[in-house]
Amino acid sequence: MAVCLILAYRLDIIDREGAPYVRILGYAMYFPWLMKEIVKANITVIRACVKADLDIAPALVKVKTTCRTDLAKVTFANSITLTPGTVTVEVEGDKMLVHALYEQEAQPEAFEDMDRRSRIAADGKGAGA
Fold first, then answer.
1. CA–CA separation, 84 vs 41, rounded Å?
2. Cα-trace Rg, the chain
3. Residue 67 near residue 118, CB atoms below 8 Å
4. Model confidence over 63-99: pLDDT tens digits?
5. Residue 30 pLDDT > 90, yes or no?
6. What is the pTM of this model?
7. What are the recorded GO MF terms, alphabetically (predicted)?
8. How far apart, in Å, do the first and last CA atoms of the chain sit?
């Protein structure tokens, strides 16, 4: 294994996308925050399911991301989809089409914190828009 690492280093084929070790700390800090958001969204969806009248207001919204790399965009899109009540339908460039159960909670501003945290986890603090 050491020979492979030395050869990969000498051939200059180790990069940020191929070697995820530089992002372990970023993802370790992102994961607890994401779990908290998933729990909060689960509570909202469970309340909607338990109510006698279905008061959802589905909406499709375009969300602009500040993520630069494909890994950061995938992290952001998957985080949206993992959160109950929202699904990333399409990713095109720096825009994502998101379906949400509640229109009032699906405004593009509602995704800014997740976008920023995804970018920092995947690209590091220095990667900014």
1. 5
2. 18
3. yes
4. 999 998 888 999 999 999 999 889 999 999 999 999 9
5. yes
6. 0.79
7. monoatomic cation transmembrane transporter activity
8. 37
